[in-house]
Give the backbone structure.
Amino acid sequence: MNEPAQASAKPPADYAELLQRLIEAEDTLYAIRTGDVDALMMGGQVYSLEGAETPYRLLIEAMGEGAGTLTLDGTVLYANRRLSEILAAPLTELFGNPMLPWLAPDEQEVFKTWLNEGQHHPVSGRLTLRKHDGQTVPVQVSINLLPAPGVPTLGIIMVDLTAINQAEQALRRSNRALRMVSACDHVLVHANTEAVLFAETCEVIVKEGGYPLTWIGVAEHNESKTIKPIAWAGEKIEYINNITLSWAADAHVQGPASSAIQSAQTVVINELATDAHFDRWRQQALTAGFAASIGLPLRTAGGTWCVLCIYAQNSGAFNAEEVQLLKGLANDLAYGIEAFHIRAEHEQAEAKIRELNEELEQRVRERTIELESSNTELEAFVYTVAHDLRAPLRSIDGFSRILQEDCGDRLQPEEKCHLERVRMATQHMGHLIESMLQLSRLNRSELRRTTVNISALAQDVFADLQRQDPERLVTTVVAPDLVAQADPALLHSVLENLLGNAWKFTSKTADARIELGCTKQDGVPTFFVHDNGAGFNMAYRGKLFGVFQRLHRNDEFPGTGVGLASVQRIIHRHQGRVWAESEPGNGASFFFTLEPTRKHHE
Amino acid sequence: MNEPVEMLLVEDSPNDVELTLRAFTRQKLATRIQVARDGQEALDFIFGRDAYIGRDLNQQPKLILLDLKLPKVDGLDVLRAIKSDPRTQMIPVVILTSSCIEHDIAEGYQRGANSYLIKPVSYDQFMILVNTLGMYWLQFNQNAVAAPVDELHLAK
């Protein structure tokens, strides 16, 4: 071949030479077609096939694509080896014969059009060839007019697309599989109920997988062991409405659905037109246009009670690759079911706990109401009793006093003493009643918390005690600036009782000393009253805060047994605690808090 | 015609009546004390009704000592009847009761009680109380003179 520079330098010579060669080629082709010559004499020169044309021929013959020349009406003038391979036809069958019959019948018209168009401008596109053995071959066809003088000739190039198409199909399949899996994963993540999970998974399989029908069935534990469809998708829904399914172990009803449930294995029927397992439903399945079916068990911890069934329009649709994909999908779905079961169990447990809690709270509320009402009743009773007891007491005291006044002169000393005892007892009872009334008032009055200066309050109480008992010499120690959030009146009563008790029980102690202070226990301010008085036996501390309970005889230390009971009520109303420590003869310590303590210790 | 009544004691307990009368008479605070044993009788006396028809209503007691828990008409209702009638509303009414319920105290004052006293259990203290209240209301306190009953009737 000439170099391009020379070619452009003398185009006419090149052209003439090309023309000459083409003519020679045509002759050669003719000779080859006729098959009776392998060397030609043209223009006074002998051209053998091994001659000057050999490189072109070899090039064309070695091409990976089918190539050839056609007359304008489509008769094959020349075809290379590859073209004969694509068509699976010997060259002799090609040469001199029309190209048209090698095309698929429904594409022959297109080919004719292209032959016409190819005379004016290059045409290319996909067509389908029909091979000698009847198989079809997808090809990319290019047709263009060969720029040669004389009889116009069309050049044709054909590329076998079989491999490319297969690759494309595989890619499409894998794309589809990916889309399906991804859509199913999406459903799995977002579905908030089992019903939604099932329904949307069916939708995805039909939409992304291109199947005409998908359904999910649940094995019912009834007498006939029916498989009840609980979710489905696809155009052919009437199919599942027209069939009955059972997972009972009779041989004649073993379709993919029941087999999958019974065996917990995937069951594939790729040729349902002939497969005996599908006898029972064949008519309906064929009517619906199904050719293959698959049953995939949805295995959960509780066993296989659900099955995923898919139908395809092509027999053999469930090949190994597809089955593998669908198995993965079924496993994901089963995982989803499992998750819902766990969640449901969890929610059930939570609901149970809530229910129990509510029941408990309700019971506590009821008990509290009962308790409150019984407390109120009791207090009203205490109040009435205490109140009504005062009237007769007043009479006893009044008339015994009158007796003293009117008859005092006439009474013997012993009689006077008896009368005096009557009046003393009356007065004591009067004090008891008064204390009971005070105690009952404590519970009824509203608790009003404010900042209380406990130190100042204690100083006032000590001053009162000293006023009532001017002879007593008691060392009182009050820590400065003790404050608390409490009801001032009630706290005053607490201090009156505790400091009053300390005052009383140190009355027989030399160097009496009473101290009020505060420490922190478990982070809660704990107030204390120490005295060095009579103290008490810790064995009796359980009685200490009881109403009318006394640890000392009245002739030792007088009292009504209401003071500490009042203190405890007040402290409890402040949600605090009160307790005491003592040793007989070594004084007593009373502790109290005015807010809840986290840790309880006695 | 009897001497005008100095004080009306409204009290249902015979014991309390006797103790109270004794306390007043012993201390020479009042001698002419009218006793009403229930609320109805108290109102009959004050307004000259029933057993007290014809009583001179211009001669009202200087003090009414009123218990609260009374048979028939309750003490607080008696109080309201007295204090809502222009003929009687200026008569001092002292409640003397054993009730120390805050509600009773408040209601007593709301209905116009002039004082509220709680009966002490101790007779000695009761004597002190009677002495003090007798001195105050019967001797030191200056009562208003009510308009004559006839004029009031005419005014209506």
About this structure: Residues 33 and 123 of chain B are 20 Å apart (CA to CA).
